[in-house]
């Protein structure tokens, strides 16, 4: 399942098929437009290079935190400082909202820029941690992919970001490796005669 924060992390794309090709989409106008539309956020496109640099730094720190969570590690005091610094960039105002006759409190962004977007990304990541969903953060088992994703399955055993793409690819790779190993172990039929 894609989340606001995992989609942001995965803007550093790696060819899941194994060619070794990777692409940093964060600075691409096409990706920026997609991301804003996908998550119903507002900011100026294209992003200036200075802001892209800040976003890359944040993405790297957030990726490190995600990897640590997957490995069972903890969020450090330094991580908390980094996240608070990003959250400070995106102030919100509280508003009463009514959905299906139920009252609630909504948070409306004060600004419409990429700093606000990064604050929303940080808040989404924190919501996953605070809601006790740290164990659902995963990194795709396809070593060529490295996609960070949120495991929304009931039993929390999802291994691949996409079972049809990375899952099938890894299944084929395991099958071929097993066949090759069997062929290497099989006695030469001419020598047996």
UniProtKB/TrEMBL annotation:
Transmembrane segments: none annotated. Residues 136-179 form the Zinc finger CGNR domain. Signal peptide: none annotated. This is Putative RNA-binding Zn ribbon-like protein.
